[in-house]
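Task: encode each sequence below as structure tokens.

Item 1
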Amino acid sequence: MKTTRIFRSFAKVALSASFLLALASASHAANLVYYVTLNVASLVSNPNAPFALDLQLVPGSNNVTNSVTLSNFIVTGGALTGTPDFSLGGASGSSASSIVLTNSNPTDNEYAELFSAGVTQIQFKVTETSNSETVGSGTPIPEQFNVAIYDNTQSNIPTLDPSGGNALLSSTIVAGQTMSSLQTYSSASPDAGVTVSLSSVPEPASAGLLLVGACAMIARRKRPASPAVA
């Protein structure tokens, strides 16, 4: 009887965990979440310093609300200043906590923050909403999230971005977007050497497996001990 009760209890816990994870997955699926790592070691001692991390949300048709949140900043070899060197439109916060860009300004929404001369790597987490623009006629124009680095003249360092915007990362915001559609580019002369890498954020299901495993361990602990052999 005890074993049956333990099994039922475990089943209830596992079912509850699965339900909560399903809810988490549903909410997670609404956003595109990933990590960006910028290798900026080539800019150390570059005469065009100081450099700034430039984050931009360019509005499209502007008929829906979209936002991009930048968080979990990790800087190697130095630091970001913690205050914006430049901000415009729907931009708020700082790297000390999180930076939020919204498409509230129909022209541009931008945030830039200087980083110290010794910085070799900048990593941060990106969370993008995924609302597709809609229009009554014609072709809708989606929002564009861009990451760049600008120099002491507030000009983006040149990259291989074919659009001419000198972005290091470019993301077109549409429903159902995945990391495979993100575009990354390396920098070009005279500021060559900056590269970008992307990594995914673990899905909630991974945490769920750990939770179910923990429940199983608890159930095993509650099993009655075997009678001692005389």
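Item 2
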Amino acid sequence: MIVLFRALTYATLFIGLLLVFLPFRILEQAGVAPPAEIGAMQIAGMLVIVAGAALAIASILTFTFVGKGTPAPFDPPRQLVVAGPYRWVRNPMYIGAGLILAGAALYHQSLALLAYLGVMALIIHLFVALYEEPTLRRMFGQDYEAYCGSVHRWLPRRV
């Protein structure tokens, strides 16, 4: 239960800062007001946000219960996670976060949020390629190599 508490704490801090606080500050600085009415773009944005949130939550729970760790780099999983959403793509948590930002950009029809998503995507990609994957290779060796050989980093594999 303690690992679940830690995972939820770290996820809340990550979500709160990168997916709520900063996007609202960006919208505020860009002068983007909430939509006056809910139209097709807002509904589409909400659907993308819900899909991204579901993917991120499923990823966090899989990390916690299967990997016995958290999404935080300083408190990683103790076991290699290849179950749940990780069966189809190696980084579903980041993809979920990206979908949340894309949905928010669509909802608010904001190019500023779309630019923020682009910057975040680049930073996350560099973090994954330069830190996360080398660390996982050291931790899990051949098992991780085999996983990388069968599951793509960003695009879901065909079922």
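Check on item 2: Residues 111-150 form the longest helix (40 residues). The chain has four helices and no strands.
End of task.
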